[in-house]
């Protein structure tokens, strides 16, 4: 339980309770009932059963830094020559005709709950998260103020679902190769919509310790907040970058977080059902060279953050760049494919068990695909001509494969898909109107969620 202590009066209230009894966050005493008890009482139907609740619209964006090998994961070619097909065999899923890598047995049993896009055709080709976070190519001319990340758009349009939890949250670890840990920012939408980062780099774990009050009462916290406001004499109308508005938002976020246990509880896996947590496996906090660590339970934390009120949660997972001198594409795959299988299948399963699958969309992808031909170091090189992605939840039409590639997975032969189409689909499923949402950059030029003419993927909506 997360408790904020206030000053006790000389005597208690008329019922004999002291002030500190009224300031127990997460268990607020109200006439002998805790707040959770009261909320549960309100949620009970006449027969005593808990009434179903509806989750808010949200997106979980899983970035696999380094370029995951599409040919070994989602688009295997068992009839190709050995130097192309590699070491893995496809297995049947619970959807007839839909096959994936043999190292994804858990996902194979629930293929009806996700869709595979095998024909992402407009990868930028850079080793960074930019396109997976913004939907745009990094090489394209950026608008004045910078390109907003997906989470910034959703934060701007929808606002927070709960004042104690920022709408845009990042579980992206800072990586040795910095662009693999970049969630993006608010761009021309302003600092207020930049991601709230919950994790750091090597040696820095989850920042949950900074979300509790230590040695300060609620009264002193409010005094300091009021003092900060009184000292703020900057003229906001001359602030053309939205910095002061952003600082106001950050201050409001801080007050909301510090005066509620909601965020801290979401990050506290000791509060999760042990049986559920066990499905996700065990974390390996060691960083994979210049990539992200194998924090498989972050899939669970992402779900818990959405339940707490986050609208967009982005996370990076492991390192998928396996083509250098120590490439060992298939050695690494045997280590990391099972972790992705366990984490992603547990997340998708949890969303369905909790009735969140209609509202919470999941996307899993990397910056590009990999060469069909295996190089002389047992790796696959960069291949931006085609890549693959997995999508789930959001009320999307799942249990299908979208697009196809030629016999060596070199390029799309059916239904080429671009990143903006995927973003349009995710925005639409998050409740954003593609034609109505318009914002202006710092030069006054109008911009939309996606480029004119881009529509949500008809196969999914």
UniProtKB/TrEMBL annotation:
Pfam families: DUF1501. This is DUF1501 domain-containing protein.
